[in-house]
Design brief:
A hairpin with a 5-residue loop joins strand 10 and strand 11. This protein has 15 helices and 13 strands. Helix 1 crosses helix 7 and helix 8 runs antiparallel to helix 10. InterPro entries: AB_hydrolase_1 (IPR000073), AB_hydrolase_fold (IPR029058). This is Alpha/Beta hydrolase protein. It holds the Pfam family Abhydrolase_6.
Length: 476
Amino acid sequence: MTASTVSTYPFEPTPPWTTVNPRPLLPQFCTHCGIEELPLLPSPRNELFNDKYVVSTHILPASCPRLTPNIPLPVVPNFSPNAAERQRDIQQLFAEITERQVRFVRGELGGERIKKPLWNCVNRYVKRVQDERKGLTLFFAHANGFPKEIWETTLRYLLSSHTASLIDEVWSWEAVQHGDAALINESDLSVDWRDNARDIAHFLLYYLPEDASSKVLPTHLHLLPETVSESRETKGFSSRSLVAVGHSFGGYCSIIAAVNFPALFSSIILVDPAIINDHCGSSQKLDGLVLSALRRRERWPSREEALRLFKASPFFGAWHPDTLQLYVTYGLCKDSQGGVKLKMSALQEALVFADRTGSPEAWELLEKVDERIELRWIVPGKPEDKGFMGEQATRVRVWRRPANSSNVVIHSAGHLIAQESPEELAQEISTFLEKKTEVAKITKRILASTTAVRVYAFSLVMESTDRGDDWRIFEV
């Protein structure tokens, strides 16, 4: 990319703000939670991704119990074909959803937390042949409304570049309401953003294999020994260096997981994350997204017709064509009427957007992210779409935790960077990983040199002591 296509925001201090009193994550996990039958994968994959990597799809239990109570979901009416009546019905459903969310935050919904088994799906992209050196493990977390495969255009650019030599393995996450996971969990869902953060931590602690090998993994990932999980919580991975990449909702979840389990992360790349101070008007923004989700069309006669209509839409028309094709291939499934439908229902997308508390909580908690974890912000600079809540809000939030942080603005994209500018995103990820690896090499050489000097100095001291010289032990 040329200098004109990217830029950075200089440091900007955080203005005075009022705490929202972030809620605890409640990271207690039950690793069995009444599992009686293992589900089948709706869209299994085990195939070549490119000439160096293989992709496969896997399932694991979500964290349990959930933070949300076991109560019925709002009922979606049969919307009237009359435009005015349909709008009235949507407004009534919107009011029910928002009231439900307010009551949940206040603790007024009652009911026992959901203990029914839920499932997450993950795609694994692993080298066909691993070399001797320890490379990086990347973990991708999607935005609301998208399947785990939405990253694959970015991954094709990234894993076909010279930077691929640094990457042993990639895991692409799917939250319980999204993609294939939504089809498995369809009747048992409710929403709290913190639950997806808990699910991510649950995977990293209990199910991510010890090392990145080329061996085939089972569809249902195996639970790790308790000693391994306990060690990871305090000491991190013994054989991995994990870099998380989170977009929007996925960026929020990555930060919350890192605040509570910092040892698991070496770096986090935040792609315009849904992390905004409530004083910037995030509640009103999310309300608009709830309404937009409820108005979504959910069914089409065929994938071809869906793709044709998407291309004609200003929203989808701005996407990279390969990413749009991925959405049609993996975000839709066959329905009972012979056509296709969204894997994630409009109601579930709306329920995720209706969580007004997660975003400002994460904004406040950003300053508590361990400074050892490097943060790289990738934010949009398209004139008509400069971030989740606009340019000024972004200028502040990218410096909420100033130490060990940096940012880059991609001027070709709006909020949906992964969908609109996947090649530019891959280039920025590549640049970051190369710098990270080079810094690690230099640090290792310095430490090795320092150790050698210390040993040599100590040997001189011991020799002088044996001779009776008045030498003093010194630090190098």
